[in-house]
Automatic annotation (TrEMBL):
Pfam families linked: GST_N_3
Taxonomic superkingdom: Eukaryota
Protein name: GST N-terminal domain-containing protein
PANTHER family (UniProt xref): THIOREDOXIN FAMILY PROTEIN (PTHR45288:SF2)
UniProt-listed PROSITE patterns: GLUTAREDOXIN_1 (PS00195), GLUTAREDOXIN_2 (PS51354), GST_NTER (PS50404)
Signal peptide: none
Length: 316
């Protein structure tokens, strides 16, 4: 299968407007639920607020400290199993999607790794084989949370900005609406996974609990944004949501509040060819490219160590 043509940012080439495909009623719904709607759902927020100190205690304090590798890999593996079959396999319809039907400009997702609602959106992005820029918003974030508040008026995650459409350019809250929007806009006819299993209700909290809240709070010694003179170029992570090793890297990127291009290339993705081009034959997910230092790093353990050494304690 031919590889999708991508620009250097990992975004597929120009696509014509597909608005005509979407029924007017659906467009109205999406517009109504975009940023500014008053649809607060305090329950989930208070659950996470309650769990936050608990998870922090179990998480064991210093995010940069050496970890028990076996435990890390096992808990992340169980987290992936808990969310099967979501976030690993690319939908058939998206494998066949022409490059012209992918987003032209980069979609931006504000999220944090431990949030089950954000995870649901990332799962959809993997299934849809889409690239987005992630601006992590851990608790105590010094930059990205302010951007969300300025754009949307409230601090609720996920928050997605799609500059390619009228419905998306002002920003959207609500994971369910975001997922439906992404399927509607970029699914190439793929069927949205309906039903309670795909939502956060049954297993959505499992990865958060199993990973003891990793990817929830900004690392106190992170040197990103406030402490650096130079602005940070987004890193690129070759990823798919259900990959247990990629999760460990996303957690670190989130805790360091590092912006990154989330280049999804899940099972069946024709975009694996791009990973091979960048990292060589036999390269696997996760793989990280850091344009700030010119480094390309494979193996989750090495990537996490690299990130904390470059943007964490070692520099503070
Ligand atoms: N119904 C919303 C729930 C979103 C939500 O409650 N997100 C939590 C994180 S899990 C949040 O933004 N909490 C505020 C915070 O972390 O500051 C959705 O599905 O997107």
């Amino acid at each position: 299968m031919a590889a999708v043509a991508l620009n250097p940012n990992g975004i597929a080439a120009v696509r014509p407007s597909r608005k005509a495909k979407r029924p007017a009623s659906r467009r109205r719904l999406l517009t109504a639920r975009a940023a500014g709607s008053n649809e607060d759902k305090p329950t989930a927020q208070s659950v996470l607020s309650f769990l936050c100190p608990l998870l922090k205690a179990f998480g064991g304090g210093d995010a940069a400290a050496p970890r028990n590798r076996t435990l890390e890999v096992a808990t992340s593996g169980f987290a992936s199993i808990a969310r099967l079959p979501f976030g690993s396999k690319v939908d058939e319809a998206c494998i066949a999607r022409p490059a012209s039907a992918a987003p032209k400009e980069r979609i931006v997702l504000y999220e944090f790794e431990a949030c089950p609602f954000c995870r649901r959106v990332r799962e959809a992005l993997s299934q849809l084989d889409l690239t987005v820029e992630v601006r992590p918003c851990p608790k105590d974030a010094v930059k990205h949370r302010a951007e969300v508040e300025a754009m949307g008026g409230k601090l609720t995650f996920p928050f997605l900005v799609d500059p390619n459409t009228d419905a998306g350019k002002g920003g959207m809250y609500e994971s369910e609406d975001i997922c439906r929007y992404l399927y509607d806009e970029y699914g190439n006819g793929a069927e949205f996974p309906e039903g309670i299993v795909s939502t956060t209700v049954l297993t959505g909290w499992m990865p958060t609990l199993l990973r003891a809240g990793r990817g929830m709070t900004r690392y106190a010694n992170a040197t990103t944004h406030r402490e650096r003179d130079e602005p940070i170029e987004p890193l690129t992570l070759y990823n798919y949501e259900g990959n247990q090793f990629a999760r460990l890297v996303r957690e670190a990127l989130c805790e360091l509040e590092l912006p990154y291009v989330l280049f999804n290339c899940g099972k069946g993705s024709p975009r694996r060819a791009t990973l091979t081009e960048v990292a060589g034959q036999g390269a696997s997910v996760p793989y990280l490219v850091d344009p700030n230092t010119g480094r390309g790093v494979g193996e989750s353990e090495e990537i996490v160590a690299y990130l904390f050494q470059t943007y964490g304690a070692a520099n503070s």
